[in-house]
Amino acid sequence: MEVLAPAGSKDSLKAALLGGADAVYLSGKMFGARRFAPNFSESEIKAAIRAAHDHGVKVYVTVNTLIKQSELSRAFSYIDTLSSLEPDAVIVQDRGLMRMINENFSLPIHTSTQMGIHSADDAQWARDAGAERVILARELHLKEVERIARDGCIGTEVFIHGALCYCFSGQCLFSSMLGGRSGNRGMCAQPCRKRYSLSRETSFMLSTADLFCIDSIPELIRIGVKSIKIEGRLRSPTYVYLTSKIYKAAVERAIRGEEELITPRERELLEVAFNRGFTPGYFSGDQVMQRQYADSRGLFIGTAHSYGKEVWLPTTSLREGDGITFYRGDHKIGGFEIHSPEIQNAGISVRSPFRLELGEYIAYKTRDRDFSKIEEEISQIVIPTCHVKSSNRTFRIPTVKRSLREPTLSAHISSISSLRSSLPFIDRVYFDMNGHEETAQQICEEADKEFVLSMPRITPEIPEVDANSIMVHSPGQAKKYADRTLYGSYFLNMFNSLTIPSLDMTQLSVELSRNDLAELTKYSNKALEVLVFGRVEMMITRDPTLDEGELKDERGKRFPVVRDKYGWAHILNSADLFLMDFMDEMDQHGIDSYALDLRGKSPELSALVAESFRNRDLSKKTRIKRRCGAITAGHYLRGVR
Length: 641
Fold this sequence. Notes:
Largest sheet: 8 strands, parallel, barrel
CATH class of the largest domain: Alpha Beta
Number of strands: 33
Mean pLDDT: 96
CATH superfamily of the largest domain: Aldolase class I
Helix content: 25-40%
Strand order of the largest sheet: 1-2-3-4-5-6-7-11
Number of helices: 18
CATH topology of the largest domain: TIM Barrel
Distance between the termini: 37 Å
Oligomer: single chain
Strand content: 15-25%
């Protein structure tokens, strides 16, 4: 089993090599999902690959963001340069980029967790599309991982340690919709680490604990998982060294059949290196939250008592050179390195370099005495410099002339009453699988309207359905029902013409701007749909503790929370998307259909919206806004970074 470590900087690369990792993953200066990490220039990537290979370590380069149409040529040149550097694989999210690589290069491809691979059908699709490994979604239970790994069609990789997103992998639009910084573009602002209120509770409602899945290693070995991945390209070299070394040792112990996979001292070091609380993740259940605080606090010591510059700590385990930090509530007071501790009253007394107010503080150990030695050893490793000439090869896609035809109007609907009220004004219905689909289909057939069964959003096991027309949300769903009439939802993240699959119709990503849309339509003659009304889904989560209601942020915005019958919670935007003003403009780009999302709307509002959009009656905009509470043009005018 491979231990795969993060290398967000040259020092972290050195740390991974020193710690004994089998492979590292790193990013260049573009198209990486951690754009705030130092990352590597092309010359530095070449040097990193050379140094890693000298140590017998593989290098995977992440190119794992969604790619706009206008960026495809630049992405091609970048991949051409990477190909000459001979990394062991590239990690890719964008299916269009994956297609480009397969058709033009011989680079091995690993699908990013951002691609959301979560079923055996998804994995089979990835294999057929040219991938040799899938990095599975972090939200899977161990039995679901086993189902994919034992299928044996493709190599599997899972996250084993580090940060855990609240939203299902690759489906988060929260940062994007709130501030234009898209998590799908490496710019996540981490709104999940902020305070929210729901019902009577106010806390870090969306903040997960960090993965700590060392106890799952024997089972992962048994079921055939090929690689375990440590998250942390934004974390310190010391963290990278410790996680690499400790997880490598744990794998070796598991292979030898030892029961103790980690020593108490090793666990202590992991807690000090970075710790916002640990969870075994979804491998061992659904308890993944840590809502008390969102930052890393290290190893909990207990309640300290300050007497000015003298501080008493309730432990005798701290030593010369350890670092401690004090908190009062959520407020970080400060910290210092311990010197000359004195045993006193079943604890130790230390002197603070600054005066603390008299009273009690919560103390955490945030640095270990051994960290300086580790940092010194890391600094001794030398990465030689290299020079690379960037590729000038260009990539051209022929333009197409889209047919300008009368667009259709479709609607996402989940209730029979809203279906009846809006049906006279729409051509196509996307109806959720909620127990009422047979009645909905009969109503549509009697009215001579097209009925499309919308699959559940996340399907570790894809259900068997008899419908002739199906809306799919993942490549695996499309693969399983390839013999049906298929419609793709915006959850497929269609960002460029190469990404668009051979479905009967595909909704474009809601993150595209008017300029992005105009550019994309120059190069695709496939049937395209744009969502023009409704609450955009910003998150879908497996967290069972999030109740239905309204999630309120610190600015007072309210985000509806809806739970489905499959156990998933959906967090919707605080305002309804409203793009009626721009439909005439989109007509000129040959958009084939416009979609309304009427789920959660009353029958009266559903009818008002459907009739208004059918007639493009902007005089009803104010009335609709008043009924909805708030409307937004989303990313159509501003786009995403």
